[in-house]
TrEMBL record:
<dbReference type="InterPro" id="IPR033905">
    <property type="entry name" value="Secretory_peroxidase"/>
</dbReference>
<dbReference type="Pfam" id="PF00141">
    <property type="entry name" value="peroxidase"/>
</dbReference>
<feature type="binding site">
    <location>
        <position position="165"/>
    </location>
    <ligand>
        <name>substrate</name>
    </ligand>
</feature>
<dbReference type="InterPro" id="IPR010255">
    <property type="entry name" value="Haem_peroxidase_sf"/>
</dbReference>
<feature type="signal peptide">
    <location>
        <begin position="1"/>
        <end position="25"/>
    </location>
</feature>
<keyword id="KW-0964">Secreted</keyword>
<feature type="disulfide bond">
    <location>
        <begin position="69"/>
        <end position="74"/>
    </location>
</feature>
<dbReference type="GO" id="GO:0006979">
    <property type="term" value="P:response to oxidative stress"/>
</dbReference>
<feature type="binding site">
    <location>
        <position position="249"/>
    </location>
    <ligand>
        <name>Ca(2+) 2</name>
    </ligand>
</feature>
<dbReference type="GO" id="GO:0042744">
    <property type="term" value="P:hydrogen peroxide catabolic process"/>
</dbReference>
<keyword id="KW-0408">Iron</keyword>
<comment type="function">
    <text>Removal of H(2)O(2), oxidation of toxic reductants, biosynthesis and degradation of lignin, suberization, auxin catabolism, response to environmental stresses such as wounding, pathogen attack and oxidative stress. These functions might be dependent on each isozyme/isoform in each plant tissue.</text>
</comment>
<feature type="disulfide bond">
    <location>
        <begin position="123"/>
        <end position="317"/>
    </location>
</feature>
<keyword id="KW-0106">Calcium</keyword>
<feature type="binding site">
    <location>
        <position position="77"/>
    </location>
    <ligand>
        <name>Ca(2+) 1</name>
    </ligand>
</feature>
<keyword id="KW-1015">Disulfide bond</keyword>
<feature type="binding site">
    <location>
        <position position="89"/>
    </location>
    <ligand>
        <name>Ca(2+) 1</name>
    </ligand>
</feature>
Amino acid sequence: MASAPPSSSLLILLILAFAALVCESRLSADYYVKSCPRFNQIMQDTITNKQITSPTTAAGTLRVFFHDCFNDGCDASVLLSSTSSNSAERDAEINLSLPGDAFDLIVRAKTALEFACPNTVSCADILAVATRDLLTMLGGPHYTVYLGRKDSRISKSSLAESNLPRPTMPMSQLIDIFTKRGFTIQEMVALSGAHTVGFSHCKEFSFNIRNDTHYNPRFAQALQQACSGYPQNPTLSVFNDIMTPNKFDNLYFQNLPKGLGVLESDHSLYNDPRTRPFVELYAKDQNKFFQDFAKAMQKLSLYGIKTGRKGEIRRRCDAVN
């Protein structure tokens, strides 16, 4: 015996529910145009003020964004604080050096946006837009950020330790980490160009300076002197690009053949035959680097995002609702 067809009212409810789910899950560049009309202006004002007062904010925010996205997607899980029952990502050993200015920027932007349009803008969207806008402030390429992400309710330090790449990893392992997330070797090299700004802590490379013959000898000596007090002062760091450390350009790639890379992974990019052709390409052609970097960043910003009911819009970026 055939079952009775559902009533017309039930069909309507099902259609409306499905339509709402589809709409809720769709990302767009103007996602907040109606729900938070001042979104772009608030973001611009907050970012500009923070970067002017703390010029290292841009590079720091880029690093926080990368650490967030590569650990189970761009969902602001790295912004959550630990609780008595859970050790969050930001307390993982690999994340302890993430700069406070980046977290402060997100808090400022979230506070202003909650005042203007409560419970509307996700922390994940704030981090994605802040990263893009700060990069352009440093002279980097502009790319469209599609909005509508939700914030994760889960953040575990153990996942960060196992998911994030480290500068001491062999190139095969680094390539594997990227390709498992759908990124090509060329996209990995393009994203590595983010090292054209910012700095690295001495603890990430000082043990290797004397043993790695790929360093320019004078540069190695300068690094040893800069990091001589590292055991007593673990916060000591050096610029990734010693030529133009606060400008987003292709000098990072030009430095690598000269032995002026800071990290072991920097040297590996030039010395490995799988990645060297792209290093040479970007060293010669900044426009090509900018073009590929922008595409890779846009792709990264959409990796593993949470939409619809898979996440929430946190009222505070450091705690779940």
